[in-house]
Amino acid sequence: MENFELKPQLVFDYFSQINQVPRPSKHEDKIIAFLQEFAKKNNLDCKTDAAGNVLISKPATKGMESKPTIVLQSHMDMVCEKTSDCSIDFDNDPIETYIDGEWMRAKGTTLGADDGIGCAIQMALLTDNTIEHGPIECLFTVDEETGLTGAFELKPGFFTGKYLLNLDSEDEGEIFVGCAGGANTEITLSLCFEQLKKSYFPLRISIDNLRGGHSGGDIHDHRANAIKILSRFIYKEMNKYDVKLIDFQGGNLHNAIPRQAEAIIAVPFDKKEDVRIDFNIFASEIESEYPDEKDVIFFLESSLGHEQCIEQNQAEKIVNALVAVYNGVYEMSVTIPGLVETSTNLASAHFEEGKLKIVTSQRSSIGSQREAMSATVASVFKLIGANVLTGDGYPGWKPNLDSKILKVAIETYKQLFGKEPKVKAIHAGLECGLFSEKYPGLDMISFGPTLRGVHSPDEALLIPTVEMVWKHILAIISQI
Ligand SMILES: [Zn+2]
pTM to 2 decimals? Predict the structure, then answer.
């Protein structure tokens, strides 16, 4: 297949320059200096805040001074992932790109089009003197990828525009108008132990190899939660037999649906075969409840050498709470079809150092709903006497379908491409959530060229969509 022409050339020139500058998250000094130098060379106003966010402004072209100021925004850091045979030093070496048909990729590494292509578009807009526009402010934020740090630390008043175009979305033809806010709720409970009598037989039960996934992007996808499933089985057996709880370990990252959980329980000697049969029946029930969980490994074996177990009253409370706590999608949006509005993920539960430690995370595009969801989770664990702490989290961006910039974006898209763009929101965090908190009334949308495989060495940029997004931005700027 013939290689695609890189258009607009100015955008791809800047993207190539950006890829010469190392810019891993939290190590943005070089890219900040590069942007400052770029502004100086082009006689553009530039300021940098304490966090390292850079704002470069360009005045209106003659006769366009009365147009409203538009802010364009991208993050300057990139996720640095490489294949095992790639020897790049991300702190010093450039990203080497190549063209593969209509895709641009990098040799063995992430491409950094997330969000370097957004930065390149902004730089092109700042220096292209063939276009007419009102006042433009281009915001380049630091450390989006590991914690939205730049957006968190952005101060009100750093930029002045009332309209913002965020260029960090990954599907051309889709316009994002909302994102979820989130917070973690963490639970700690001191464990009480008692002697395990010799008449009990300890068993290790594990559930492994579930699909897992992202607690924002995949929570609606009917994926089994290993902690929920395992505690459900223990609950069932506790209600049939005199079951003791010895250990419980499940889940890992706060933003992942747990793929694995295991527990050690002890059952009366004469009941161990009954429990084994129950477990086999339970496994087949789960398999039929979750047909897409094709490779689950259910495992039960004897686990000798335990002398104590959790005090029985507390063990029952823990299992009851794990079963009772809400998990998954709580509410779907009524304004954006298919959007999860509110959800919670029971992310991990571990017995460690004499304590039960649980991490859960709640998300919602509506701040007050996120708080309510966190309260729902917290309450269950407060009822069993646990310490519960919900963090501050990050704010959501509530979809506003009456947004003026959205109307202009839809109209111009239809004029340019003869089709409707899709208007969407996501159930994960974006920098826009923080902007909306700090700049109340800011009218925003998020869009960008098509990317695939972001955050992995498979990252690829669909070349022709860069020109489409460029044209779309120009049209929005001229018609707002
Ligand atoms: Zn990004």
Answer: 0.84
